[in-house]
Amino acid sequence: MSGASRERGPAGGEPAKGEGTPRGRVWPRGPFRPEFWRSPLRGPWLTAVFGLVLLAGIPIVALTGLVSYAAYNPRLPGNDITPERGLLGFYLFDWPTHPVWLYRLNQGVHVILGLTLVPLLLAKLWSVIPKLFAWPPARSPAQLLERAGLLLLVGGVVFQFVTGILNIQLLYVFPFSFYPAHLYGAWIFLAALVAHVILKLPRAITALRSRGFRQELRTRLRDTHPEPPDPDGLVPVAPAPPTISRRGLLAFVGGGSLTMFGLSVGQTVDGPLRGTALLAPHGRTYGPGPNDFQVNKTAAAMGIREAETGPGWRLALTGPRPVRLSRADLLALPLHTYRLPIACVEGWSTEQEWTGVRLADLARLAGAADGSGVFVRSLQRGGVFGHASLSARQTADPRSLLALQVNGADLSMDHGFPARVIVPNAPGVHNTKWVRELDFRSFS
Fold first, then answer.
1. Are residues 188 and 242 in the same domain?
2. pLDDT (tens digit per residue) in 277-331
3. CATH code, 364
4. Kind and range of the H or E element at 388?
5. 257-271, pLDDT tens digit by residue?
């Protein structure tokens, strides 16, 4: 029979007793055949262990991702990176300016925990892969719905992790806009995850109770045996001899997660650990001196010309009393210095000492009323963040600066010379560099 085969037992006859293969069923070749999957480690218990850890970690990754979107203050003009969000933005709230480390912590957890979970996610997918090739695809409407949900769950988590990892590596290879796709994908995946947990949690609890975790960690390779046959078809019908114990597999996956954590945590912790962040695109150094810290986009990449930032540069303050200021004029105003972190959506963050003029002082200079926000425009020509709105709360915070110096030295070109915005607890892209205009206005 071309393209298909009748299932046989190990000796070539009918399926052996207890293997769980229906007599006389016709199977396509390859992974659709139950005997194709032979690892003796697969089974409900191992799958439930991986699932339990992911169930603890993935909701945290999802929640911090949604909070990250709220940090952009998307209700303000120019900040909405997902204008078609509709009801998906029901939870949005006004992003605070303190504690100053909140966005740094949120985004660090989002990215680093996501990377740490990758080995566990791959192990979980490996443990259930026979289920993805179950044949026939559905034998009842209920099973068809279950498999459709499984497709959304697996497809959703793969899409979210792959696009997220590519984004933090600055590999913008998407044929679509990353931000709305990642937001919509998150909600689709979360809906599928909730449905999956409701359906599978009782069975997972039963599987976890079927054997002790500590006992399994003491089980050696020679004592490793397949789990009893299960209705989901995870246990192989013709298992191969084990080449690794379950405790060995758990150690391998756990070691992979610890390695991912160790190679990425330095981008958020910063300091001496920055050099260990080999998985982070910003884990390297940027030269000696006070400006030696991460940059997301260089001046050259954003089309900034030195002639625009030289002596002829002027900052425009737009308000009831429009003002134009040179850099010397700004340096003559009262300057303030604060040590503030700057954190980016890709997960990197650093804390530096910034010196500049308070945005609130510039708002008063332009005659702006109390409670005004500010629309910031940059000299940059490329990218999607050449402008941003800051809320009235952000503008009024005394630590919100138009920074002119960092760590006692003038800003470098790549860090936004001649002036950049630094706002406590704001996403990095809203700390606009190469500022050319501050438009103070009331956002209703």
1. yes
2. 988 877 666 777 999 998 888 999 899 998 999 999 999 999 999 999 999 999 9
3. 3.90.420.10
4. strand 387-390
5. 999 999 999 999 888
249 and 372: one domain? Answer: no
Q: Rg of the chain over CA atoms, in angstroms?
A: 28
CB count in 10 Å sphere of residue 332: 11
pLDDT tens-digit map of 53-63: 999 999 999 99
Distance CA 63, CA 187 (A): 11
8 Å CB contact between 161 and 260: no
Query: What is the residue range of 353's domain?
Result: 306-441
> For the stretch 7-25, what's the b/e string if a residue is b when 16 or more beta carbons lie within 10 angstroms of its beta carbon?
beeeeeeebeeebebeeee
Classify residue 3: in a domain, yes or no. no
Residue 172 confidence (pLDDT): 83
Instruction: Note the pLDDT of residue 25.
Output: 62
**Structural domain count of the chain:** 2
Same domain, 108 and 211: yes
Name residues whose C-beta falls within 8 Å of residue 88's C-beta, 6 or more positions apart in sequence: 82, 183, 184, 187
Contact 350, 294 (CB under 8 A): yes
Cβ 402 vs Cβ 99: under 8 Å:
no
Decide if 288 is inside a domain. no
Question: Do both 253 and 367 map to the same domain?
Answer: no
> Given the DSSP bridges, would you call strands 435-441 and 315-318 parallel, antiparallel or unpaired?
parallel
Residues 83 and 229 in one domain: yes
Residue 425 near residue 98 (C-beta atoms within 8 A): yes
Say if residue 7's pLDDT is above 50: no
pLDDT band of residue 11 (cuts 50, 70, 90) is very low
Torsion of CA 402, 314, 301, 413, to 10 degrees: -60
- The residue from 266, 295, 318 where one domain ends is 266
3-state secondary structure (DSSP) of residue 69: helix
Distance CA 422, CA 431 (A): 5
Question: Virtual CA dihedral for 303, 287, 376, 301, nearest 10 degrees?
Answer: 20
Q: How far is residue 58's CA from residue 53's CA, in Å, rounded to a whole number?
A: 9
In a domain, 11, yes or no: no
Q: What is the pLDDT of residue 13?
A: 34
Q: What percent of the chain has pLDDT over 70?
A: 93
Same domain, 210 and 313: no
Q: Are residues 251 and 327 in the same domain?
A: no
Phi (first) and psi of residue 306, to 5 degrees: -60, -30
Residues 114 and 168 in one domain: yes
Question: What pLDDT, on a 0 to 100 scale, did the predictor assign at position 279?
Answer: 84
Q: Is residue 200 part of a domain?
A: yes
